[in-house]
Amino acid sequence: MELQISANTLVVTGNIKSISDFQEIKRTIDNMISGHKHINLKIVDSLSITSSVIGYLNKLVLKDNIDLNVIVGNEQLYHLLDDLNLVSTFKAKRG
């Protein structure tokens, strides 16, 4: 997994599959939200995301009131978010 940061946008390439991937995403977004209340998260090609990432993103939106937009490149991952009723929460779009 690789992360690229640009202002309030985080681009994730590769599969999100380990605890260290979650920790790296969390650390990066935590740094971003100190200066931004609107975050764009682009998950380019991951087939899935870990439950810890889902829980963290949920907390950002519901508890921390972060305006989160998730752009999902993989159709399977988009369907997973849809099945979990998270498309509207994360403002998820295919892209």
Written overview of the protein:
- This protein is α/β, with parallel strands linked by helices and 95 residues long.
- The chain has a single domain, classed as STAS domain (Transcription Regulator spoIIAA), CATH 3.30.750.24.
- The protein has three helices and five strands, in the order ββαβαβαβ.
- Strands 1-2-3-4-5 form a five-stranded mixed β-sheet.
- The chain is globular and about 30 Å long.
- It starts with a strand and ends with a strand.
Gross geometry: globular
Count of folded domains: 1
Strand composition percent: 25-35%
Could you say what the CATH architecture is? Answer: 2-Layer Sandwich
Average the pLDDT over all residues and give the rounded result: 97
Category from helices, strands and their pairing: alpha/beta
Give me the oligomer status.
single chain
Number of helices: 3
Broad CATH class: Alpha Beta
Number of strands: 5
The fourth-level CATH homologous superfamily is STAS domain
CATH topology description: Transcription Regulator spoIIAA
Structural Rg: 12 Å
Task: Summarize the helix and strand pattern as letters.
Answer: EEHEHEHE
* Strand order in the sheet with the most strands: 1-2-3-4-5
Q: What percent of residues adopt helix (DSSP H or I)?
A: 25-40%
Reported for the largest beta sheet, the result is:
5 strands, mixed
N-to-C CA distance: 18 Å
Model regions low in confidence, pLDDT < 50 over at least 5 residues: none
